[in-house]
Amino acid sequence: MGKRKTLLIVLILLAVMPMLANNRIILLCGHVKDAFTNGGIKNVKITLFDENKVPVDSQTVQYYNEDKSYMDSYYKFSIPAEPKKYIIKAEHPDYEPCYIKYDVKCLGRNESFEAPFHYMKRKIKTLQGKDLKDVVVKATRVKIVFKNDTVVYNADAFNLPNGSMLDELIRQLPGVKLTDSGEIFLNGKKVDNLMLQGEKFFNKDRQLALKNFPAYTVKNVSFYDKTTDRSKYLGYNNERKEFVMDVKLKKEYSKGYIANAEGGCGTHNRYTGRLFGLRYTPHSRFSLFGNLNNMNQYYYPGSDGEQDPRTADNGVFSRRVLGMNVFSANKEETVKNELSAEIIWNNNDNKTRTVASTFLPAKENYVASFNNTNWYGIYSNVNNELTILKPFYISSNTGWEYSNGSSKSTQRSVTFNKSPFHDNEGAESLIDRIFKSELQPIDTTMVNSMQKDMHGNGYFSTLWETLGTSKKLPWGDHFDMNLDVTYTKEKNTTFNDYQIRYMDQNHDDLQNQYSKEPTTHFRYKAWGSYNIHLLSKWNIAMGYEYEQRYRHEIHDKYRLDWLDGWSKSHHIGDIPSTRDSLLAALDYGNSNYTWYHSREHSGLFHVFYDKDDKDGKIRFDLNMNIINKYEKLCYQKASLDTMAFNRNWLFTPSVSFNYSTPKGMGLDMSYGTEINTPELIKKINVTDTTDPLARYRGNNDLKNSLSHVFHLGFRNRIANMQAQYNIAADFRIDRNLIGNAVTYNQSSGVYTYQPRNINGNWTGSVSNGFSMALDKDRLWNLENNASFNFNRNVDFVTFAGSADYQTSKVNNIYVTDGLKLTMQKNKFRGALIGNMEWHNSVSLSDNFSTMNVFDFNYGMTATYVLPLNIGISTDLKMYSRRGYSESAANNNYLIWNMSLSRSFIKNKLDLRVTGYDLLQKISNHSFVVNGQGRTETFYNNIPSYVMLTVGYKISINP
Q: Which H or E run contains 582?
């Protein structure tokens, strides 16, 4: 009886399954374009016929990138999942009707099919009746528009200081954060790519575009999730959508040529120059950037950006930059290519004063130092990205980077057993006082003193190629094949002259060091996967990856002071004239040669669910990769010739979930693991004494480190208030983290570092932000960003001769908050800005004093157009510090910048007078605390100056 019931159920299922299959619905998609411009066409009626010309369905096209110069018009029909022939008609009053035939053949697990494009020809018209008159439309400038999950900012609604670049526009956008490194966040969500008119733009060096692209050309800035090119080819989201910032140009700049240039000179030998040119067509783009200045900054008076002394560029530097970007695509946009290149010349002059203390088991020691470094270098890169979407997907990224530089420095330092500072005495004055005593001990707490002169030069060159391809199979699945190859070569040459006095031993150590260190590195990786695309939105991908690395390093180190009379008769940078003399100075104890080789076999398993419809987006990813990693290192040093091996099985699972609605609400959750294997060179049990005061010893007992990383984020918006808000929490636990155990010799002041695994390190943070309009007319806007971060830092430290390392545990709490209130009406824009950072450090160590460091600033920015169209921009901010160990750091800095500008010749010619740091108060300073100690550093900076700038811009439309 049971067998009969089972048979009956099977027969019923077999009968129902074809019925279910017959009810399945798939999509038939297509695009409509103007046959001449290749742009989209609005209000086109699409009618779907069967092969007998019987109407099945009809609709009006939808739009993608509506504001784009080559807008995309598309349609989607829901049709039965069965082989069938169709006729698709496109009609518009201004165009000739256009017909496309399409045959739906192999269904498999395909969810959609794409018909060939409709290229519509415009009808020939004759002018009738009266000539059209110009129509002037006046509208209120709305700052923010929410279009489903897209946020659009109207650039003309923001009053920018004259001459502003794109970065200043981004800083003014409510809810948008631009970091010093060029990262952009909207309501807490990080931007993956920068786009110009819907295409990638200078993503290799985003800062180059942000700081050189003129803001006056921008119509609006949109933030949205963009389908990747690979997913477009496959017809579904195989990859996560990219969150992009898309810059749209004004109509008069979206075709033809635009160019602008400016140059300026100021007091204290300050200068600036800038050049920008752009040629744009619907399917090509050429842009050229040029910049040179020695101002250390890119902010304009009236900017919402921070001139915080702690985050400003350190030292005084001059920079010259030249960059170009070329984009082209075919008519169907199935072949796209972007070529970018840049070259940068830098000349940096850095002077630092540093006070550092190390937490020892029963006390602290102090090091006061002064360092003067001058560095000159050149950096260049070329990058080409090619994408092909038909007949299958191909992506290629080819690039080359090169840098070459030289540096000279002089460093002076003194080590003490306890705090050596007199009342109100700073680090630099302390060092000057000590060295003026001709290295004689003037304090019984002094351990050693050092002067080090360094000359160095080197180069770095790397070439890479990344090639990827995907092929969609007739039944809906697809496979991927990828290749990644990198070749790197570098060489560094260094001269170090040491003069060290050890006070306890009353002994001087003079060393003249010379080193040559070339390195060659080669890596390639190949991987492939097969993706099963299920009709339930689920996907299963399985693959294999192989990676191989090779690295050869030569570290030839010489002690030129071993040659008779060398120190007295030669200067730094000189080398012996004969090879035999040079070999006689070879430091066999520190010279070494390594050959590293690794192979990785990885099994890839990826399960994901992706749903993207009018109700929202859901994305779930589960990755479970297993890696077999084999490493081998051949090491030679003096009489030592050894090999080290390491083989690991690594399991690195990760899981993430993302949910968002068309109204802007989003939820992100993720968990991942990170496993780092120790470098084999660190496991070679040898001691390196190249640095007389900082020795290094290997450790063959190192283990793999493991980290667990958690993230939770929520964001939302309230459209009628133009409000956005977000909250996020992050947590990280580190196991067997590799840190440097420190042994300190109290009599000589020499540190010995050895890598060791340590536990107990973890971090946790919570952050939130919001922005909102405060009134009905959207004149007032309030923004706030706050964060709380806790860091448990555990590290080793001990005295020389001690049997065991002791741990130093420091709990760090960081609290930040930034508040900005802006008001804009007509020609006026003003902002009140306040920021604070509180850093608390606590340790159970008896010799550790609890530290409370408080940095805060407050002030205002304003822009206004005076009579005679004279623009004025100014900012006045007070920067304050409290709680620092050096009294010079506990101070207030009132920073005031201002500019006056006027445009002539129909706004083509700009004149601007700018004053930076008019009160001469800027001073750079940084403060770092970890498990081993604390460090305070002061940097030199540029002087206050006034500058006259002249700018000119042109636009040529076809």
A: helix 579-584
